Amino acid sequence: MSSAFLKGVRVLAMTQVWAGGWMGGILADMGAEVIKVESNKKIDILRRTIETQGDLNRGPNFNGYNRGTKSCNLNLKKPEGVELFKKLVKISDVVIENLAPKGMPGFGLDYDILKQVKPDIIMVSVPGFGSTGPDKNYISYAATVQSIGGLEASFGYPGGEPSTPSIFMADPVGGMYGVLGVCSAVYYHHKTGKGQHVELAQSEAIMSLLPESVMEYEMTGRIRPRLGNRDEIMAPHGCYPCKGNDTWVAIAVSDDEEWQALCRVMGNPEWSKAARFSDRFSRWQNQDELNKLIAGWTRSFTHYEVMHQLQKAGVPSGASLSTEEMNHDPHVKERGALIEMTGQKVGKTLTWRSPWKSALTGSNPASPYFGEHNNYVFNTLLGLSDSEIKKLIREEVIY
Amino acid sequence: MFYKVLDGVKVIEYGNLISAPFCAKIFADMGAEVIKIEQPCCGDDSRRMEPFMNDIPGLERSGLFQYLNMNKKGITLNPETATGRKILLQLLKGADVFIENNPPKRMKALKLDYARVKQVNLRIVMTSITPFGQTGPYKDYKSSELINAHMGGVGYDSVREVDISREPIKAPAHIFGFQAGLSAATATVAAVFQQSVTGEGTYLDVSEQESIIQNMHSVFRYYYNKQIVNRTDVLDRAPAHILPCKDGYIHHANMEESEWWRFVDLMGNPEWAKNELFADYTLRSQYWDALKPLILDWTKDHTMDEIYRGSQERGSAIGALYTAKDMLSDRQMAARGFFVEADHPEIGKLQYPGVPYRFSGIPKEQPSTAPLLGQNNEEILCGDLGYTKKDLVKFREAGVI
């Protein structure tokens, strides 16, 4: 990549699972050289998911996240491994990690030690609950983090119980904040010459995207209810059944003009002229009945047909897309939002590029095999000879 | 601001509602000077959105607006007037970053698209955040948080225990608008770094739909699990679920075998746990319908706090479904100082969610509250751009500010 935001920035990645691998992939999209340090002592669980059938290089989630990064092997349980890690720190700009808070100190590689090795090193840590405080060592899977962060209590159908979500936002959100930490600290380093340790709590990252519930409680004393697809004032504002099995379309009407346009597209049915739907407040108040009537109309069309008809008339509407449909959607295709990774070992995998386009954004869809770049890292970067490398492999240091 | 990381960076925000204002908030929180431009008549639409202080609506009373616009300066300006546009271009000439989330057609009509902005400032970083990006067949489609969520795939993928006769739902509040703002800010800071190294500007086309796609794990499994067509295809029957307890809900998230047995220990090692039908993860998943009522029989007598802390202290991953009240009294958030107090002239002292990151090399500072509508007109237009107070009177009469 000849021109990119983070050209010339080298990142050592002590990362695992979702948030960590995800950060590496985004930083690589931005043009940084990301070297993931991995070991047979503790293999990333995403290299061992059920789909891989025992092949470390075939993990779809691993490959999707870690795209564009390099992989080297280093056993940090051995003192020689720790020494080699420090040599890599000396020639790097940034260390990112999302181990448990005791992980890096356990290897003797906490920030204070890294700072002695390289005074202006930037370290970015992305633990679930932060690296300080009484609960810092609590187990932080996405589910625990986003329940504490307030996402789950307000996720569900109106009036119902909270629903168990199958999307986990703690990782992409915590990971993106981690990348923000890298970019801002790299900028600060460029201006001042100073490095530092940036740490964040994924639970707080989720909270920072859901301020409404905290503000509502403080301003009115109320706990925000679960709203499903509903809005505080817009109606109709929902997801409606369409022709076919389990297909749906979302419609969101914000004012009288959009409401009248919706009625026109529906052929101005008699019920739409009723007083109980005649202004924003009455539509909101009578939305349950309104939703049933609209569903009676949407059922005759596919979700795409409803979307295109309504958009043509100026009404916000969108099909509720499955992964399958998204992969074939003409807009997603033209934008190149999804990328097919191919490689003899990794097999065919679908991933996405970073959610922005720019002349300075790259995208390198290759994902590293386990230890693929050992020679580059230990020979080209650190200058070890072939025989030294062989010896370190034998001694399970490069392992 | 919270941390002076981006000290000296000048940002102009011409945004509305969530995505661009949150993107610019991140710059303001990190010490950049952010000038927010609002419509003279009525300001940002979020000023008219719930919640309101003591349930009394008012332009300076929305909690959503207050949070989104902390640490910024605010001016009113109507770029639809020739004079308003001229003033905006003067501001852009001296800025490092321009953040906006208007429809692409509107920016072209106002002659404020990147091609024009570049003419006054070649080194500017301009970031446009729109529902579907600047290109492609849907670029001019109207959208909203609800539409974005469903077009981004997370509606269809959202709930684990699916009854497909019910509609797919979106995640709460405006979380995806916020996430798009976060994604945009991250890329924009990277572009500002590049700008400071090379002196070159760039244009960033950020799509909210693509920002949402980042949450979709099912994308990766697409070629491994060909049947991702219906919602039920993404379900896994793992015994990891939200369960009710005495005073709320817990998220039972045990992934490792050892974590389950630590949870069994917390429940007092009941006899039923020894049943061979529950011997391992796969079996517990298979017999979940039989297992669930046994667990519920214990959780109903125990509080969220007892289960959350009792499990976690034993090394078993369980989360508590915190509401705002729980967050504000949580000991971890208190120890880390996540919530911050700020005193606003109209609505007084309140706790606001702070920022999730901490910089070891920079002291944390007190944030300032969001600008009143047009609060910094004089400071910016007279102080920075050299207009007189008399000019401001005329601008106001003419509907420019």
Question: What are the SSEs and their pairings?
Answer:
The complex is a heterodimer of chains A (399) and B (401).
Chain A: E1 10-14, H1 17-29, E2 33-38, H2 60-65, E3 70-73, H3 79-90, E4 94-97, H4 103-106, H5 111-117, E5 122-125, H6 142-148, H7 170-192, E6 197-200, H8 202-207, H9 211-220, E7 237-241, E8 248-252, H10 256-265, H11 280-285, H12 287-298, H13 303-312, E9 317-319, H14 323-328, H15 330-335, E10 338-341, E11 349-352, E12 356-357, H16 374-381, H17 386-394
Helix pairs in contact in A: 1-7
Chain B: E1 10-14, H1 19-29, E2 33-38, H2 63-68, E3 73-76, H3 82-93, E4 97-100, H4 104-109, H5 114-120, E5 125-130, H6 145-151, H7 175-198, E6 202-207, H8 208-213, E7 242-244, E8 249-252, H9 257-266, H10 281-286, H11 288-299, H12 304-314, E9 318-320, H13 324-328, H14 331-336, E10 339-344, E11 348-353, E12 357-359, H15 377-384, H16 389-397
Parallel strand pairs in B: 1-2, 1-4, 2-3, 4-5, 5-6
Antiparallel strand pairs in B: 7-8, 8-9, 10-11
Helix pairs in contact in B: 1-7, 9-12
Written description of the protein model:
- The complex is a heterodimer of chains A (399) and B (401).
- Chain A has 17 helices and twelve strands.
- With 399 residues, chain A is an alpha/beta fold.
- Chain A has two domains: 10-209 and 336-394, Rossmann fold; 237-328, formyl-coa transferase, domain 3 (2-Layer Sandwich).
- Chain A has a six-stranded parallel β-sheet, sandwiched between helices.
- In chain A, strand 10 and strand 11 form a beta hairpin.
- Chain A is elongated and about 85 Å long.
- Chain B has 16 helices and twelve strands.
- Chain B has two domains: 10-214 and 371-397, Crotonobetainyl-coa:carnitine coa-transferase, domain 1 (Rossmann fold, 3-Layer(aba) Sandwich); 242-328, formyl-coa transferase, domain 3.
- The mean pLDDT of chain B is 94.
- In chain B, the strands form three sheets. In chain B, strands 3-2-1-4-5-6 form a six-stranded parallel β-sheet. In chain B, strands 7-8-9 form a three-stranded antiparallel β-sheet, covered by helices on one side. A two-stranded antiparallel sheet of chain B has the order 10-11.
- The longest helix of chain B is centred in the middle third of the chain and has 24 residues, at 175-198.
- Chain B is α/β, with parallel strands linked by helices.
- The interface between A and B is large, with 149 and 149 residues.
- Strand 6 of chain A pairs antiparallel with strand 12 of chain B, so a sheet runs across the interface.
